[in-house]
């Protein structure tokens, strides 16, 4: 374990004067441009470097530029240089480092050792990530350095372990090594210091600059239990949702409650008002505020009306069900608190976005919408093949005539019609319980086994789909058995091309709205 005292000095900028003197063009930019000739020497001379490989025409690179600049300015004081390489000029260099998209960010510890940058492309995230990279996974703290260490990041984690307790030391150290990108860790074996911090040995204390300021863990010292505790303890009672925190909340495994408000004052007030509710339901639900001016478009994903703020909704992130709060009502913490409890207790029906149920089914393909999904797909004793499509998806359009042809094979034969249904749903206009990542997605819900749908992975030809239904359906119906062969045999047996299997992912959201 390295002692962290000298590091703290450099982190706190004691060496800043020396490093800024070396820079000449700092008046205009703190990001250093490097070329094939200068790159290797530069990363040899600096212990830790963050490099951006970019192309001048790349939109994401342009969006990153001001944030990268700000991060470079902040990190300059900590002696961590941020550099950039124009890959349209330095082609050879970019090939050497296997740059295959722009921007690519890599952390260098010398020319031989580089790892992908693993944080968000935001100033704060870059600063925090690189600061953590500059420290050992576990720093050593003493009575003299503990207070200073606590101030180094929003959250720091300190293990208090007896000097002869090798088992706990090992668990804590490997936990720290696995999570060093996300948190700063320190350890101490000073029993008196542990006592002064209200902790026994072994235990772990998470210090944070919000809520109750610290949490003590003295449960089992295995990585999984520690992780579970850190997840809860590091999440603010009422947090703020933005591009940096979105992924964390979506993968937390518990529902997320959104409070949309347009002004900072309102959001601060809601944060205060909802804290006791969040404390009561800690570990059951996460609560966040979000800036309705920037992220108002997110209301449509939660089945809320746009532009009526403040607004409140809960999303069950594992089932993707949505519980919008009545927008004619005021967002009152006490009333909303009851709603939150009812949702957690399963007393509220999720809202389902749905097109109107069609009065008649026109073609051979059955049209399913959000409100008829349960009846037409799940609550029946038929083998149901369902295509999830999007109106803008080109692969879906080219599938359409073949899908109609397939559907007709079953719809036109009375004894088949009883047992097999070929259906489709516009998954952009209707809520479905399935998590769909690309279009088209095709699944078979076999009779009697509706909770185990089988996803179709083959090429999108009529013949292969017929075989799929026959092999995976309860009734093993062969759509071609009645002699009703599809007309264009040649097309049907053509080998699968890449585009017949490809799916499309949703188009980026409209310009002008920030994406979460
Ligand atoms: C944990 O073990 C390492 C390696 O043996 C040692 O350097 C360190 O001081 C120990 N940490 C504590 C808190 O005892």
Considering the chains and any ligands shown, give keywords for the structure.
single chain; 516 residues; Glutaredoxin; 4 domains; five-stranded mixed β-sheet; 20 helices; 20 strands; 18% strand; globular; PDI_thioredoxin-like_dom
Please specify the SSE layout and strand pairing:
Blueprint: H1 5-11, H2 16-22, E1 32-33, H3 36-45, E2 49-54, H4 59-76, E3 82-86, H5 91-96, E4 104-108, E5 114-116, H6 123-133, E6 138-140, H7 146-150, E7 155-160, H8 166-178, E8 184-188, H9 191-196, E9 203-208, E10 214-217, H10 223-234, E11 238-240, H11 246-250, E12 256-261, H12 264-280, E13 286-291, H13 292-295, E14 311-316, E15 321-324, H14 333-344, E16 366-367, H15 373-378, E17 383-389, H16 394-411, H17 414-417, E18 420-426, E19 441-445, E20 454-455, H18 462-472, H19 489-493, H20 498-501
Parallel strand pairs: 1-3, 2-3, 6-8, 7-8, 11-13, 12-13, 16-18, 17-18
Antiparallel strand pairs: 2-4, 4-5, 7-9, 9-10, 12-14, 14-15, 17-19, 19-20
Helix pairs in contact: 4-6, 16-18
The structure holds 2-acetamido-2-deoxy-beta-D-glucopyranose (NAG).
The site of 2-acetamido-2-deoxy-beta-D-glucopyranose (NAG) has 7 residues, from strand 8.
Describe this structure in words.
With 516 residues, the protein is an alpha/beta fold. The chain has 4 domains: 13-133, Glutaredoxin; 139-233, Glutaredoxin; 238-344, Glutaredoxin (3-Layer(aba) Sandwich), CATH 3.40.30.10; 366-501, Glutaredoxin. 35% of the residues lie in helices and 18% in strands. Strands 1-3-2-4-5 form a 5-stranded mixed sheet, covered by helices on one side. A 5-stranded mixed sheet has the order 6-8-7-9-10. A 5-stranded mixed sheet has the order 11-13-12-14-15. α8 links the parallel β7 and β8. The longest helix is centred in the N-terminal third of the chain and has 18 residues, at 59-76. Bound molecules: 2-acetamido-2-deoxy-beta-D-glucopyranose. Its main location: endoplasmic reticulum. Residues 479-516 are annotated as: Disordered. Participates in the folding of proteins containing disulfide bonds, may be involved in glycosylation, prolyl hydroxylation and triglyceride transfer.
């Amino acid at each position: 374990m390295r002692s962290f005292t000298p590091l703290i000095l450099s982190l706190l900028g004691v060496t800043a004067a020396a490093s800024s003197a070396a820079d000449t063009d700092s008046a205009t930019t703190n990001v250093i441009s490097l070329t094939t000739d200068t790159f290797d020497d530069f990363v040899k001379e600096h212990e830790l470097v963050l490099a951006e490989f970019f192309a001048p025409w790349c939109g994401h690179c342009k969006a990153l530029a001001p944030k990268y600049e700000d991060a470079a300015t902040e990190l300059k004081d900590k002696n961590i240089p941020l550099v950039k390489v124009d890959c349209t000029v330095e082609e050879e260099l970019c090939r050497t480092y296997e740059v295959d998209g722009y921007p690519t960010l890599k952390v260098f510890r010398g020319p031989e050792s580089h790892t992908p940058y693993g944080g968000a492309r935001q100033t704060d995230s870059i600063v925090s990530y690189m600061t953590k990279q500059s420290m050992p996974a576990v720093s050593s703290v003493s009575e003299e350095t503990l207070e200073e260490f606590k101030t180094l990041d929003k959250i720091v984690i300190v293990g208090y372990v007896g000097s002869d307790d090798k088992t706990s030391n090992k668990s804590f150290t490997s936990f720290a090594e696995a999570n060093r990108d996300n948190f700063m860790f320190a350890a101490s074996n000073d029993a008196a210091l542990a006592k002064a911090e209200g902790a026994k040995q072994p235990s772990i204390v998470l210090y944070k600059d919000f809520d109750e300021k610290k949490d003590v863990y003295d449960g089992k010292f295995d990585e999984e239990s520690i992780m579970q505790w850190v997840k809860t303890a590091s999440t603010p009672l009422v947090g703020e949702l933005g591009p940096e925190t979105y992924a964390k909340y979506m993968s937390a495994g518990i529902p997320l409650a959104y409070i949309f408000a347009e002004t900072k004052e309102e959001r601060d007030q809601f944060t205060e008002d909802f804290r006791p509710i969040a404390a009561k339901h800690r570990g059951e639900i996460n609560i966040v505020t979000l800036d309705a001016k920037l992220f108002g478009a997110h209301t449509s994903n939660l089945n809320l009306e746009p532009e009526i703020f403040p607004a409140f909704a809960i999303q069950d992130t594992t089932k993707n069900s949505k519980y919008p709060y009545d927008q004619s009502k005021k967002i009152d913490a006490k009333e909303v608190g009851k709603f939150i409890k009812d949702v957690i207790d399963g007393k509220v029906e999720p809202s389902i976005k749905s097109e109107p149920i069609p009065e008649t089914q026109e073609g051979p393909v059955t049209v399913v919408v959000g409100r008829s999904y349960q009846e037409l797909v799940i609550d029946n004793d038929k083998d149901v093949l369902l295509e999830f499509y999007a109106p803008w998806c080109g692969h879906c359009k080219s599938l359409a005539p073949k899908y109609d042809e397939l559907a007709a094979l079953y719809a036109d034969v009375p004894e088949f019609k009883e047992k097999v249904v070929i259906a489709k749903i516009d998954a952009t206009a209707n809520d479905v319980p399935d998590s769909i990542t690309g279009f088209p997605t095709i699944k078979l819900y076999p009779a009697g086994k509706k909770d185990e749908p089988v996803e179709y992975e083959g090429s999108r030809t009529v013949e292969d789909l017929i075989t799929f239904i026959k092999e995976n359906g309860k009734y093993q119906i062969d759509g071609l058995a009645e002699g009703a062969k599809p007309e264009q045999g040649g097309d049907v047996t053509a080998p699968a091309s890449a585009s017949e299997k490809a799916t499309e992912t949703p188009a980026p959201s409209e310009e002008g709205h920030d994406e979460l």
